[in-house]
Amino acid sequence: MATSDTNKSRPAGVPEENVYNSLHWSVIIAYLAAAGALILLLSFAG
Question: Which one, of 8, 29, 11, lies nearest residue 19 by Cα?
Answer without folding.
Answer: 8
